Amino acid sequence: MTFRNYHLGLVSAVAFALSGVFASAHAVDVVIAGAGGVSQEARRTALWNPAAKTLGMTLSEDTSQNWGEVRAQVEAGAVTWDIVQLSMTEVGRAAAAGVIIKLPADIVNRNDYVPGSVNDYCVGYDVYSQAIGYSTEAYGGQGPQNMKDFWDVKKFPGKRGMYRDPRGNLEAAVLAMGHPKSEIYKFLSTPEGRKAAMTKLAELKPYVIWWTSGAQAMQLVKSGEVPLIYTWNGRTQAAIDAGAKYKITFNDGVLQIDCDAIVKGAPHPENALKFLKEISKPQYAKDLPKYISYGSANLKAYEGYDEATLARLASSPENIQKQYTVDFDFWNKFGAELSEAFDAMLISN
Predict the structure, then answer these.
(1) 82 with 269: CB under 8 angstroms?
(2) Predicted confidence band at 224 (pLDDT cuts at 50, 70, 90)?
(3) Whole-angstrom Cα distance, residue 119 to residue 42?
(4) Do the beta carbons of residue 314 and residue 131 sit within 8 Å?
C-alpha cells in the first residue's frame, strides 16, 4: 500500500467516523462497504436488500476502493464498517496486517464455490474479468483482440483507459511481450521479469488515461473519451447497455474474484456474520447477472441461466477458455513491492 492510498484512507476513515456520530440516532444493524457505482447498485438490489429483509435487519452502506481504507480505520481506532468488499488479491495483505478477522470454517460450504473464491478470511461473491473493450465507431469490427493489439498504438491509435494499479496491468504487459498466458506468473516470479513487465507498461504510459474507480471507467466509455479500455467487464457492459458503441473481447482477459470480509473491531460483529452468511446463499446470488454482467462465485447460482445470460458472463464455460485466472498468492507476496514500483513508474519521465 502506498503512502498516498494510506493517507486518503485515513482521511476517509476519520470522516466517516464523524458522520457516524450524526447518524447514531438512526441505529443500523450492519454496515457494508462496496465498490460503488453500478456494482454496488447491483449488489444492493440482488443481495443486500433481500437478505436484510429476510433477517429483519437495517442496513447502512458506504464505498471503498482499496484495502488501505480498512487499514486506516483500524489503525485510527475509528472502525465504522462491519463488512468490506475486497479483491481476492488484497486479502492476504489485509489478513497479514490484522485488519480483517478469521471467519468460522462453516460460514459457507466451500464445495459449492469456484475454487479459490473462499478462504479463511473472505467469501467470494462474484467472478469477473479485467478485459479489453473497444469503440466500434473508432475501429469498426476490427478492434483489438489481444494484448499485443492493445499495445499497438499505430494499428489502433488513440488513448487507452487503464486501472491506476499494477494488478492486471503487469500481466497484460507480459502478454503484450509475447509470452503465453500459461507462463505469465513464471515470468513475473523473477526480479528481472517484474522489471521487464513494468518497463513494457511504461511504454504505453503516454497513451493512457489512468482511472481509479469502476464508475470513472464506465464514464470514459460512455463519453467516448477513450476508444480503448482495459477494465472490469461489468462496467463496460453497463455502458454498452446504456448506449455506448463498444464491444468486449474476453481474449487475454484476467478472471478475478471479489469477496466480502469482516473488519476487525466491527461495530456489529454478530450481525455481520449473520448477514455475510445470508447474502452468500444461491437464492440471492442467482439474481446478480440481472443487474450487472458478473457471475456469482457460488456455483449453485448458475442453475437455470439461459444462453444470453451466460454469453455476458466472464465466468461462462465458453468465455473462461479465452482467459486466465489471477494468481492471488503472487499478488499477496509481491503486491506491496509492485505498488511502489508502479507509483515510481507513473511519476518518472
Answers:
(1) yes
(2) very high
(3) 24
(4) yes
pLDDT in tens, 141-153: 889 999 999 999 9
d(CA 341, CA 338): 5
Give the span between the Cα atoms of 4 and 118, in whole angstroms.
Answer: 30
**Beta-carbon contacts of residue 201 (< 8 Å; ≥ 6 apart):** 166, 169, 170, 172, 173, 342, 345
Structural contact between residues 268 and 29, judged by C-beta atoms closer than 8 angstroms: yes
Closest CA to 73 of 261, 265, 260: 265
The two most distant CA atoms of the chain are separated, in Å, by 59
Q: Which residues contact 4 (CB under 8 A, 6 or more apart)?
A: 343
- Rounded distance, CA 96 to CA 5, Å? 18
Size (the chain), residues: 349
Q: Please, what is the Cα angle at 213 between 207 and 216, to 5 degrees?
A: 65
103 Cβ contact list (under 8 Å, min separation 6): 120, 121, 122, 123, 261, 262, 273, 276
The pLDDT tens digits of the residues spanning 286-303 come to 999 999 999 999 999 988
Helix (H) or strand (E) holding 196: helix 191-204
Answer yes or no: are the C-beta atoms of 234 and 38 closer than 8 Å.
yes
Distance (Å, rounded) from C-alpha 263 to C-alpha 226? 37
- CA–chain centroid gap for 327, Å, is 14
Identify the band that residue 5 occupies on the pLDDT scale cut at 50, 70 and 90. very low
> Would you give the distance in Å from CA 268 to the centre of its chain?
25
Q: Are 178 and 148 in contact (CB under 8 A)?
A: yes
CB 124 within 8 A of CB 288: no
Collapsed DSSP state (helix, strand, coil) of residue 62: strand
Report yes or no: 254 and 82 within 8 Å, Cβ to Cβ. no
For cell 464498517, the residue is 81
